[in-house]
Amino acid sequence: MDILKETGLMNSKFFDTPMDPNTKLLPNQGEPMSDPEQYRRLVEKLNYLTVTRPDISFAINVVSQFLNSSCENHWNAIICILKYIKGYPGKGLLYGSNNYTRVVSY
Fold first, then answer.
1. Which ranges of the chain does DSSP label H, i.e. alpha helix?
2. Which residues pair with 32 in a beta bridge?
3. Does the global pTM surpass 0.85?
4. Domain ranges in the chain?
5. What percent of the chain has a predicted confidence (pLDDT) above 90?
């Protein structure tokens, strides 16, 4: 979990959901980020994670909308996503190395 180490969240408590359903994020909402590049890098990493973690896709889609106008409130939403991932590391899809292309659900 390099992302958790990078953000200093290894010893933090985890959340049960990737995003608070009552949170309304808007452009230019709150104090602008001091390092917007850090926000962009983290969203990019999380975006790749959605391939195996569809449970975070909606939340990542929301925070991706603010790449050009990231604020502290948007950063806090990313922290919630990371704390959710920390609590459920085994959740997601596992793709095997064989050529089996049929999707099976249980």
1. 2-7, 36-49, 57-64, 72-87
2. 71
3. no
4. 2-87
5. 18
pLDDT of 63 higher than 90: yes
- Alpha-carbon distance of 27 to 87, in angstroms, equals 29
Instruction: Determine the Cα–Cα distance for residues 99 and 37; give it in Å rounded to an integer.
Output: 38
Residue 77 has pLDDT above 60, yes or no: yes
Report d(CA 88, CA 16) in Å as an integer: 8
In terms of C-beta distances under 8 Å and separation of at least 24 residues, what long-range contacts does 59-63 make, across chains too?
59/18, 59/19, 59/84, 62/19, 62/25, 63/25
Tell me how far apart the alpha carbons of residues 56 and 46 are, in angstroms, rounded to a whole number. Answer: 9
Q: Write the DSSP assignment of 2-28 as a string of letters.
A: HHHHHHT-TTSPP-SSSS-TT----TT
